[in-house]
Amino acid sequence: MKSDKTNNINIQKEWSTIGETYATEVNKMVAFGEEYGWENWKGKEPEDNRDHLANVVVQKLREANKSGLIEEFRKQYPPAHTPLIKFFKEKGQSIEQLCFIENEKIVFIVGSSYQKRQAYILDSKTLIKLDVAIEAIGKSHQNNIFAIKVSGILITRKEWDGDIIETFELGDLNKIGITNMTPFNDGKKVLVTTSEGIYIVSKNSINMVHPEPDLKDEEWEPFLDMENAALSNDNKYIVVGDQCFDHRVLDNEGNQIGEVGPQSSYPHFCLFSKDDEQLITNSCHFYNGITIGVDTKNLDGIEIEAYQEGENDYKIINDEMRVYVGTVIKDFYILGDAYGYIKAHDKEGKCIWRHFLGSTISGITVSDDEQTLWVGTYAGIIHKLSLGKGHRDTHTIGNGNHYEDFRLILWKEEETELCW
């Protein structure tokens, strides 16, 4: 009969050996596909055959968190995605609206817009539960303005805990879950995205800017799927879209000045480059998609037709990803997709790096010095990455050369958070 020590060594060895082999084979396969074309790949699909170890490894993770031996556990059991899929299906939840505050501190929301949500601050590895009345959080592109929906009102403030700039009464909008929101750089207005319309909220008005109402239908009500919106960094432009409407370009009062049609099936995401010189729009088909970039000098009056392959008015940024979230850093975008990848692309469409986390990406934010990235997923996990620091272990999938400081697991029906 094997001793517990021997059994533990065997489990650890099997976990590490299979995990390293799997990561190595996936990295080779992806590198080949990117260089020579996926149609030329004749090898087998790599398999991660560690499902039978999942229960015992997760239990060891719980024990390591209770005993404070997390670093030692991580060395012995580098984290993985595939073996834990059954846990994600049972316990996973969306982690959204990540916003950088300062130093090693971020704020985020657990739960989707149609669910009861809980807000947290993550300060280094310390998790702080916030007031249950907080339902949504957003941050401006400049000036560190935060927007917070709480107890039927929306407030903007300078810094996370600074002075209140404005208080907005939401009226009927209070009853609708907020998908995303971005305060304007002065805190006097907020762009609010919901499944029942996209709005500009100001002190004296709530103006629905998308979709355009059907004036011929007396019973018309706004209802959106895949609703998405972006505010330019200088707040000059707003872009809005959803499954049924092309991306519409608006001025900062909500008046339409242009339109960008999808090059895949359904408009799904949009974002401005950090210097506001380019707008990217993503459209999706199932789990894939196409992202294009247009010059913002041409936004006033722009008309990009849908499905116009080879069009000279835009650049292909990526032709694979269904993009869920994104942020900007230096001269490139960091985009999170349906397959659990984050990828960095420049404005010409060159892929700078890719890094696999697992599960659809649901939230992302970057530190002001652009050295640290926090990424949330629908698996109920936040990953903290030090960009360009080098891989932490041989189990990393991707070529981004990033170091995962830790991943924090926030699962349903779990006694406490788990740091891995």
Question: What characteristics describe this protein?
Answer:
420 residues, mainly beta, Methylamine Dehydrogenase, Chain H, 2 domains, 5-stranded mixed sheet, 5-stranded antiparallel sheet, 41% strand
Describe this structure in words.
By secondary structure, the chain is mainly β. The protein folds into two domains: 4-76, no CATH class; 94-419, Methylamine Dehydrogenase, Chain H (7 Propeller). The protein is built from four helices and 30 strands. The chain has helices at 4-36, 54-67, 70-76, 85-91; strands spanning 95-102, 105-110, 118-123, 126-129, 134-139, 145-150, 153-158, 164-169, 178-183, 189-194, 197-202, 206-210, 228-231, 237-242, 245-251, 256-260, 266-272, 278-285, 288-295, 303-304, 315-318, 323-329, 332-337, 341-346, 351-356, 361-366, 372-377, 381-386, 403-409, 418-419. It has a five-stranded mixed beta sheet, with no helix packed on it. A five-stranded antiparallel beta sheet has the order 26-27-28-29-30. Strands 1-2-3-4 form a four-stranded antiparallel beta sheet, with no helix packed on it. The radius of gyration is 22 Å and the shape is globular.
